[in-house]
Automatic annotation (TrEMBL):
It is a multi-pass membrane protein. It comes from the Bacteria. This is SSS sodium solute transporter. One of its GO terms (molecular function) is D-glucose:sodium symporter activity. It holds the Pfam family SSF. One of its GO terms (cellular component) is plasma membrane. Signal peptide: none annotated. It is found in: Membrane. Belongs to the sodium:solute symporter (SSF) (TC 2.A.21) family. Keywords: Membrane, Transmembrane, Transmembrane helix. The chain crosses the membrane at residues 15-35, 55-76, 88-109, 130-155, 161-180, 192-210, 247-268, 289-312, 353-380, 401-423, 429-451, 458-477, 489-511, 549-565. The keyword Plastid does not apply. InterPro entries: Na/Glc_symporter_sf (IPR038377), Na/solute_symporter (IPR001734), Na/solute_symporter_CS (IPR018212).
C-alpha cells in the first residue's frame, strides 16, 4: 500500500467534509461524557449495570464486529474473491449468532458471570481460567492494533495527516469515551456508528452499481476479468479456501469456517457476549444476537459488492493489476486489495458525501477498537488483576483499575499495529488469530457445557494443546512445508485446534478426577433445572415478535434462501 503514490488516493476533502467529521467526533465524546454520569460501580462500568434494551444491545452486537477490519477487509476480500466472501456472514456468522441466543445465553446470563473467563473459572477452576484470561487479553490487544493500523493508514492516505498523528488522535478519542463511560459509552456509540457506517456504504454501493451498468453489468465485467464467473457464486468458493477440490472446499467452509471458526468466535468471544450480558432481562439477552443477525446477513450487500465493483472498475485494481495480485505478486500500480474501498470512494463520491464516508470509516474503526478495549479491561480487571494479583479490595478500587488498564491497553495496541502492517490482506491475519485463540476455546467450552464428566485438568490441557496445534499448522504453512494458499491455513488450523483439543480433553478426563455434580449446577446443560433457563414472556418481554425461537427461525430461513440464490 505504501508503494501507491499518495496523491492517487488523496481525497479532495473540503470545509464541509471537515465540518461533518468535527460534528461526528463531538457527538461521540458527548455520548461518553453523558454515559459517565451513570457509572457509580464496577458493574456499571464493565456491564452497563445490566440495564440496556435488546434493540440497543442487538445493534451494538453487530456494530462491535463491524470494525474497520471487517469493512475494509471484507471489501478487500470482495475485490479478490467475489461473492464467496459472503460465507463469512451467511455460514460464518448468522448460524452461530442464533445458536448463541437460543442455547448459550441462558447459561451466561443466568449464571450472572461477568465475563467468559469467569464462566471457565466456575466450570474448570483456576488453571483453565488463567489460560483463557491471558489468551483472550492478548488477542484483543493484537486485534485492536490491527484496527488502529488500518485507521492510521486510511487517514494518512485520505487526508494527508502523518500516520503517527492519525494513530494518536484516533486512539485518544476512543480512549476518552471508553475510559469515561465504560461499556455504556461504547455500546451507545456502537449504535450511532452502525447507522453512520450504513449511511456511508449504502450510497457507495448504489452509485458503484450504476457506474458498472447495474447488477448485470457487474456480472459481465467480473466474468470477463481475472477470477472469472466463479467469483459470482458463493459456492464452492475454491479461490477463497485455496483448495482445488470442490468437496474439500465445501468441507473447509462448512466445518472450518461455519462450525469451528464461527461458533468459536460468536459463542465464546467476550467482545460479543459482553454486549448481550448488558441487557436488562434474560429475554433481551437471548434476543440480542438474534436481532444483531438481521443486519449481519444484509451487510454483504454494502461491503462485498463495493469490493467487487472496485475490482473491475478502479484502474489500479482491475485487469492486469488484479491478475498479478491474485497470483500473489505485486500489482504494477502498487495498489493492494486493502485499498479497494478507498479507491472506489475516491472515484465516485462528491464532497459532503465524502465527509460522511470518511466518518463511516472512522466509525467502523472506532466501533471495533472500543469493543476490543471494553472487553479487554473487563477481563484483565476481573479475571487477572482481581483473581490473581490484588484480591479483596473495594469496588471503587477495581473501577479505577479498569480505567487505568484502558489507557495501558491503548498504548499496547499502538505497538501491535506494526504486526498488522506486514499483511497484504488483513482478513488473513484476523482469521489466523481466531484459529489460535477461538477454535480451541470453543472445543473446551462446548465439551464442558454438555459433558458433565469433563474434568478441570482436561479444561486447561485441551486449551493449551489446541492452541499449540493451530500454531503448528500456521508455522508449517509459513515455512512452505504445507502449501495452503488463500485462507486455507486458518481453516485447517482451526479444524486442527478443535480436533486436538477434543481428543486431549477426552483422554485427560478419563485419567483425572471430575468435579462433584453439585458444583456444576447452572454450568452443565444436563444438571441445570430447565426453569432456570426460561425467560419471562410478560411486560416488556411480551409479544410474538419478542420470542427468541420464532425470530431465530425467520432469520435462519432467510439466510438459507440467500445461500441458494447466491
Amino acid at each position: 500500500m505504501h508503494v501507491l503514490a499518495e496523491a492517487d488516493l488523496r481525497l479532495d476533502a473540503n470545509a464541509i467534509d471537515y465540518l461533518l467529521l468535527a460534528l461526528y467526533f463531538a457527538l461521540v465524546l458527548g455520548i461518553g461524557y453523558l454515559a459517565r454520569k451513570q457509572v457509580s460501580t464496577s458493574l456499571d462500568f464493565f456491564l452497563s449495570g445490566r440495564s440496556l434494551p435488546a434493540w440497543v444491545t442487538g445493534l451494538a452486537f453487530v456494530a462491535a464486529n463491524l470494525g474497520a477490519i471487517e469493512v475494509m477487509g471484507m471489501s478487500a476480500n470482495g475485490a479478490q474473491y467475489g461473492m464467496p466472501t459472503a460465507h463469512y456472514f451467511w455460514i460464518g456468522a448468522v448460524p452461530a449468532m442464533l445458536f448463541l441466543g437460543i442455547v448459550m445465553m441462558p447459561f451466561y446470563y443466568g449464571s450472572k458471570v461477568r465475563s467468559v473467563p469467569e464462566f471457565m473459572l466456575r466450570r474448570f477452576g483456576k488453571p483453565a481460567h488463567l489460560v483463557n484470561g491471558i489468551s483472550f487479553a492478548l488477542a484483543q490487544i493484537l486485534i485492536a492494533g490491527a484496527n488502529l493500523y488500518l485507521l492510521a493508514l486510511v487517514i494518512n492516505l485520505l487526508l494527508g495527516w502523518p500516520i503517527w498523528v492519525s494513530v494518536l488522535l484516533a486512539a485518544v478519542i476512543v480512549l476518552a469515551y471508553t475510559a469515561l463511560g465504560g461499556l455504556s459509552a461504547a455500546i451507545y456509540n456502537e449504535v450511532l456508528q452502525f447507522f453512520v457506517i450504513v449511511a456511508a456504504l449504502l450510497p457507495l454501493t448504489i452509485v458503484g452499481l450504476a457506474k458498472v451498468g447495474g447488477w448485470q453489468g457487474l456480472v459481465d465485467k467480473v466474468s470477463a476479468g481475472p477470477g472469472g464467473a466463479e467469483q459470482l457464486n458463493s459456492w464452492p468458493g475454491n479461490q477463497l479456501t485455496g483448495f482445488g477440490s470442490n468437496f474439500l472446499s465445501v468441507l473447509g467452509l462448512v466445518f472450518g469456517l461455519g462450525f469451528v471458526l464461527s461458533f468459536g468466535y460468536w459463542t465464546t468471544n467476550f467482545v460479543e457476549v459482553q454486549r448481550a450480558m448488558a441487557s436488562k432481562s434474560m429475554s433481551a439477552a437471548r434476543r440480542t444476537p438474534i436481532i444483531g443477525a438481521i443486519p449481519k446477513m444484509l451487510v454483504p450487500f454494502i461491503v462485498i459488492i463495493p469490493g467487487m465493483i472496485a475490482g473491475v472498475s478502479v484502474s489500479e485494481l482491475a485487469g492486469d493489476n488484479k491478475a498479478a495480485l491474485m497470483r500473489g505478486e505485486e500489482a504494477p500500480s502498487g495498489a493492494t486489495f486493502n485499498d479497494a474501498l478507498l479507491l472506489l470512494m475516491r472515484d465516485l463520491l462528491p464532497n459532503g458525501m465524502l465527509g460522511i464516508a470518511i466518518a463511516g470509516l472512522l466509525a467502523s474503526f472506532m466501533a471495533g477498537m472500543a469493543a476490543n478495549l471494553s472487553s479487554f479491561n473487563t477481563v484483565f480487571t476481573y479475571d487477572i488483576w482481581q483473581s490473581y494479583i490484588v484480591k479483596d479490595k473495594s469496588d471503587g478500587y477495581y473501577l479505577r483499575v479498569g480505567r487505568v488498564i484502558t489507557v495501558i491497553a491503548t498504548v499496547l495496541a499502538i505497538g501491535t499495529a506494526f504486526i498488522a502492517a506486514s499483511y497484504a490482506n488483513l482478513m488473513d491475519y484476523l482469521q489466523q488469530l481466531f484459529s489460535f485463540f477461538n477454535a480451541p476455546l470453543f472445543a473446551t467450552f462446548i465439551l464442558g457445557m454438555f459433558w458433565k464428566r469433563m474434568t478441570p485438568t482436561a479444561g486447561w490441557a485441551g486449551l493449551v494443546s489446541g492452541t499449540a496445534a493451530a500454531v503448528g499448522v500456521f508455522l508449517l504453512a509459513e515455512t512452505g512445508v504445507w502449501d495452503l494458499p488463500g485462507q486455507g491455513a486458518s481453516f485447517v488450523g482451526a479444524g486442527a485446534a478443535f480436533v486436538v483439543d477434543v481428543v486431549v480433553s477426552v483422554a485427560v478426563t478419563y485419567a483425572t478426577q471430575p468435579k462433584p455434580e453439585a458444583q456444576l449446577v447452572g454450568l452443565v446443560y444436563s444438571l441445570t433445572p430447565k426453569e432456570s433457563l426460561r425467560h419471562s414472556t410478560t411486560g416488556e418481554d411480551a409479544g410474538w415478535y419478542r420470542r427468541p425461537g420464532l425470530l431465530a427461525g425467520i432469520v435462519l430461513a432467510v439466510t438459507i434462501l440467500f445461500n441458494i440464490i447466491f
